[in-house]
Write a structure and sequence with these properties.
This protein is α/β, with parallel strands linked by helices and 425 residues long. It has 16 helices and 13 strands. The strands form two sheets. Strands 7, 8, 9, 10, 11, 12 and 13 form a seven-stranded mixed beta sheet that branches. The longest helix has 16 residues, at 286-301. The chain starts with 8 loop residues before the first helix and ends with a strand. The mean pLDDT is 95.
Length: 425
């Protein structure tokens, strides 16, 4: 095992993040899963942060006739020369009229498919907001208000997508139902804990096991106000989703959060470091997660942990933040700042927490880095770290320190990535 830490801990941690993200790019994982072309039209549709990159691979692999449309967040359009698949940008995470119009076009395109055609669905995280086609009786303004409230409430993505599916004309299996009798090939890059295809992007091509009553329970749990007409329809079950696929639907997960963690773990071991991989299913409050991982760091440095220093502690999943302040931040920057506070300037510890899609909530960046001097620098700059956390302004602090991690759009999304480099105390 290694007897010394990497000479530049921040550069090393950034390299782990880059390795993790590179391992789940569309040009790495998509081609082996593509089906044989149909005798009729190949209709390519999709949405999400990886959708344009996935479409680019499809264009390379299918020289014959194809057509289609995918929706991506602003800034996530991968460059395709002479594209046959149209790429449209829309708002994320709160939907807008561009996403609504594009989703309507996708639904119409899929409905035109015949039995000799094939629908190829390219699905990745972010598609729930991007394919914003409200169910009859629901307006886009309704969806925008409900989505924004849920994002601030502390609800996890499974709960949020449960509500989204029941207010949609395209998610929760509706897209696959619209394609019948054409076969559907549904390829997914997962960004959710457990890799449930019914949860990723609110499962547009997957039967939905949740009910209108489940959606109403989520709204009530987090005290999210909804118009009376929507509440009445949910209570009556009028927005129920398909519970089974009537047609020919093949679903494959082609990249997972665990793949990214495995790639980073292998890279750390090549440097001679011990690795403790906590897995890709960590959830709950970001500050509580930081406290738990800080305790683990202290145990490692005390010689009572599951690995010995020097080592790397890796984790994925999706922490959440219950937004109460008006600051700028996201779950990863909040985790990083809370971790720095919990460690109280401990020597020999550096950390990185970032979203693999390149954007962490409202942070304006992927995440942040911390080191042994972070807490001192925060205080020297005049910040009260507890007040900052209470105001949810973690990204504001890291921006002032120059410690935000901002790679820009990564064209993929497999949830959060965290790495803590631990040396001797």
């Amino acid at each position: 095992m290694a007897t010394a830490l990497p000479p530049d801990p921040f550069t090393f941690l950034k390299s782990l993040y880059e390795t993790a993200v590179a391992s789940v790019q569309a040009d790495v994982c998509l081609a082996p899963h593509l089906p044989s072309p149909p005798t009729g039209r190949l209709i390519v549709v999709g949405a999400g942060k990886a959708a344009a990159a996935m479409a680019a691979v499809v264009e390379e692999c299918y020289p014959h006739r194809l057509e289609g449309l995918v929706i991506v967040p602003d800034g996530y359009s991968a460059k395709i020369e002479n594209p046959r698949v149209t790429v449209i940008e829309a708002s994320h995470p709160v939907p807008d009229v561009r996403g609504e119009a594009a989703a309507a076009k996708i639904l119409s395109l899929v409905q035109s498919a015949g039995p000799s055609d094939m629908v190829l669905a390219l699905i990745s995280g972010g598609a729930s907001a991007l394919m914003a086609l409200p169910a009859p009786g629901v307006t886009l303004d309704d969806k925008r208000a409900i989505t924004a409230a849920l994002l601030r409430s502390g609800a996890d993505i499974t709960q949020i997508n449960c509500v989204r599916k029941h207010l949609s004309a395209i998610k929760g299996g509706h897209l696959a139902a619209a394609a019948a009798p054409a076969p559907v090939f549904n390829l997914i890059i997962s960004d959710v804990i457990g890799d449930d295809p019914a949860v990723v992007a609110s499962g547009p091509c997957v039967p939905d096991p949740t009910t209108c009553a489940d959606a109403l329970a989520v709204l009530d749990k987090y005290s999210v106000a909804v118009p009376t007409a929507i509440r009445t329809a949910l209570t009556a079950g009028d927005f129920e989703t398909p519970k089974e696929n009537d047609g020919d639907v093949t679903t494959r997960i082609i990249a997972r959060p665990s793949d990214a963690l495995a790639a980073a773990a292998a890279a750390a071991r090549r440097e001679g470091l011990a690795v403790l991989n906590l897995g890709d299913r960590l959830d709950g409050d970001a500050r509580a997660g930081a406290a738990a991982q800080a305790a683990l760091v202290r145990a490692v440095q005390a010689g009572t942990g599951p690995v010995q220093a020097p080592c790397v502690i890796l984790s994925g999943g999706e922490y959440v933040v219950t937004v109460k302040g008006a600051g700028r931040g996201g779950p990863n920057t909040e985790f990083a700042l809370a971790l720095a506070a919990e460690l109280e300037g401990s020597a020999g510890v550096w950390g990185l927490a970032a979203d693999t899609d390149g954007r962490d909530g409202a942070a304006g960046a992927a995440g942040a880095l911390i080191g042994p001097d972070t807490l001192r620098r925060v205080r020297t700059a005049g910040w009260d770290i507890r007040a900052v956390l209470a105001g949810n302004d973690s990204a504001g602090v890291f921006a002032s320190l120059g410690d935000l991690l901002d790679p820009g759009p990564t064209y993929t999304n497999v949830n959060d990535f965290r790495a803590i480099l631990v040396g001797p105390a």
